[in-house]
Each structure stands twice: as structure tokens, then as C-alpha cells.
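In practice, a research group might receive sequence data for several interacting partners and want a quick structural hypothesis before committing to experiments. The following worked case mirrors that situation: the sequences arrive first, and a predicted assembly follows.
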Amino acid sequence: MLAKIYITLKKDVLDPQGSVIANSLKSLGFNNIEDVRQGKYIEIKLDSENEDTANKQLNEMCEKLLANLVIEDYKVEID
Amino acid sequence: MKSHVIVFPGSNCDRDVAVAIKNISGDQPQMVWHKETSISQSDLIVVPGGFSYGDYLRCGAMASTSPIMQDVVKKAKEGVPVLGICNGFQILIESGLLDGALMRNNSLSFICRDILIKSKNQSSVFTKKTQVAKMPIAHNEGNFFATSEQLKRIQDDDQIAFQYCDENGNVGCQSNPNGSLENIAGILNKNKNVLGMMPHPERAADLAHGCEDGKTIFESILN
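A structural hypothesis for the assembly, expressed as C-alpha cells:
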């Protein structure tokens, strides 16, 4: 089973990297950019048959290590 | 004084801080490799600066799961003074010993220069002797952030140890090098026996460094 984890800064946390990327994209002519937020993408291969158990485990991984919940949100998808 | 310095793969200020402690206290600290699981009786545990685990995932995140950290957390909860400097501050936050988060500097640049700090809480074991002090910072992720609830708790419980300031001790935007909330350069835990700080006192602890202001922090711990 393959899990895809997306970690992004919380909406109310300033993302200076995102702002710089937005400016760079605008300078390339993409003038309709409204906002850019940069995050992390992690793939985890799991030996698990049960999606519910895997989901629970993946959430625990995010909360214990993969995301810093003070500044980041996370989303787990299972393929 | 019996002190211990934790060494992770990628630590690079471990020996600097050991030299500073030896010069100030007269006693040689014991270096503790991160794979060890316990620390003997200690008067001070230092989590030094550097780039533990190459800053993978988030600065300090990997090191916070090292075997030795369980005993550091246990000793901290028993009241042993624990000092985290720079990457050590990041590790203490990731270990849950201190509140908040250290984000990338708002300039998006690594900053390496002398700054001034002043102690806000002057009654902790670490901060009794420091007024306005000069010492270097050298970091990419030192921008202190806390949720509004955390910040209120930190302020209400007098947990702000150091703030970036100017030469007159004024705290303002112009003396803030990295975007830290409330100019925070260092915070204490609720019991005031754990300090995390971004500036490097061990790099301002000898005349050859050009400044000895950092000694005040180690002298405060000694007395």
C-alpha cells in the first residue's frame, strides 16, 4: 500500500518562500497568480491490508514526527 | 560542576561549548553520544548547536527521536538544568520540552553575525547575570513562532528568557534579525530549568572571540 502525505504551512502562518515563488512566477508572465504556498510531499510504502488501520497509523506518524502541528497541517491519501 | 554535552551526528558546537564550560567552571564536561540511553547525575545538560542529521525533515526533528533524548526529557522533568543552543533549541522544541516552533528566517537567508540580547526573565538559573549582551547568531531557522495561546502562556508564566534588542536594551523591529515573534531569542519552560536560545554564548566566551558576554550565562548556572 502506498501512502501520500502532504504537509503544508497552516493558513495563518506566513510563508515567505511561497511569496518569493509567487513573485518569480509573476516575473515569468504568469500574472494571474493569486497565492503560492510551499509544502512537503512524503511517500510511505506500508505493509498493511487494512486501510483503516493504516490510516490511523499514518495519522499518528504525522502527529508524532512528520508534521509540526504548531505551524503545519497535513493530509494523508492512500493509493 | 558535573555537566554533560550531548553529541549527535552533525553537531558542530559540542566541543566549543565543552571548552567554554571547562574554562568557566574548571570541570571538564562529559560528552554523551546520542545512541546512549542514560546520563549519570548531572548539574547541567547541554544540547549543542550544529546541523544534527543534516536538518532532514525539520531542524531538530530527527535528533528529537535519538535514544538519549528520552533521558534528557526525563532529567528535564526532574528539574535538571538543560540548555539548548541554536540547533539544540530546535531539538528541545521538537522534543516537546519547549513550546512554539522555529521557522525559516523571514529574510530567507542564513544569518551569521553578532546581535544583542537582553534577559527578560532575570530570575532563572540561566539568566541571573545577563543584562544586555553581545553574541553571535548563525542560523537559517531561528524565526520563533508560537500560536496565540502558546504565546499568552509563555508571557503569563514569564518564560521569555532573551529578546533581541539594540545597544540601549530597546526591543523593536529594527533589532529583530529573523522575524521572531516578540523579538524572542530564547525561552524557558514553565519550571524555568530548560532554556532554548538561538544565539551562541559559547562563541562569545573568550577574549580571543572578541567578546566575553556569553560567559554570563554559564556563570549564572554555576552560581
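Before designing any experiment, note the following. The first helix of chain B runs from residue 14 to 25. Helices of chain B lie at 14-25, 67-78, 87-94, 148-156, 215-222.
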